């Protein structure tokens, strides 16, 4: 369900071009929270203290950061506590069909395909990766024609094999289908997304995967990096975040409708994962996001 405060952007990317790149130096962020159909790679330099919203993730950024955003993911940067008078922002956008699905199925493109899938929740790269790739991104505008496309592909490959990148938005927040590389994991997550508001047990979900509980725990941790409870809470929090910004329901109502058994537990888990309580999140998303 679209959020009324979020603007749908029509980008300037020409249908005849493979990608567009534009760079600007500014004193503040002044573009509202928005989304668009294209993939976007965004490099921000010299903006320590600014606020970034991607999906249901709200974080304060460091002096340099690089994010990769999939189609129709809500995103925006806001001045916040940033005092810099020379924020440098470089944005690369490309069409969803630039890399055909059959092309991405090839073995050599496995890492890029996985990164594209993960971008539907927003990806932030490590400080080290961002620092190492910055010069190449800044120089991309100096290339043209076929060489520029080759360099973009090379940059995407480097990022797809980098370590310590992190998905930002919870899987339950968006209506977009998110797929893991393992079909059994997809089946488990589909089940949890359908039944997140109910009392789900480890035994029940392990049965969906047709695995013993202990084996299922190891399997899930290996494929997602998270435990069963952490995965279920991510889905519940994503749905709770969406309700916080889409409805006027009380926080208690949202907690119970999203499968949390009491308000204290909901507040504690929400703050641990999002570094703010639900009330603060609602205010930031519906008010602060419109003000630079």
Outline the structure in words.
The chain has 292 residues and is of the alpha+beta class. It is built from 11 helices and 11 strands. It has a 6-stranded antiparallel sheet, with helices on one face. The chain has a 3-stranded antiparallel sheet with strand order 6-5-8, covered by helices on one side. Helix 2 crosses helix 4 and helix 3 packs antiparallel against helix 4. The two termini are 25 Å apart.
The counted number of beta strands is 11
Please tally the helical runs, counting DSSP H or I stretches of 4 or more residues. 11
- Share of helix, binned: 40-55%
**Mean residue pLDDT:** 91
Q: Please give the oligomerization state of what you see.
A: single chain
Largest β sheet strand count, sense and barrel closure: 6 strands, antiparallel
Shape: globular
End-to-end separation in angstroms reads: 25 Å
User: Strand percentage, roughly?
Assistant: 15-25%
Q: Uncertain spans, ≥5 residues at pLDDT below 50?
A: none
Any key phrases for this structure?
single chain; about 290 residues; alpha+beta; six-stranded antiparallel beta sheet
Structure, briefly:
With about 290 residues, this protein is of the alpha+beta class. About 40% of the residues lie in helices and about 15% in strands. The strands form 3 sheets. Strands 2-9-4-7-10-11 form a 6-stranded antiparallel sheet, covered by helices on one side. A 3-stranded antiparallel sheet has the order 6-5-8, covered by helices on one side. Strands 1-3 form a two-stranded parallel sheet.
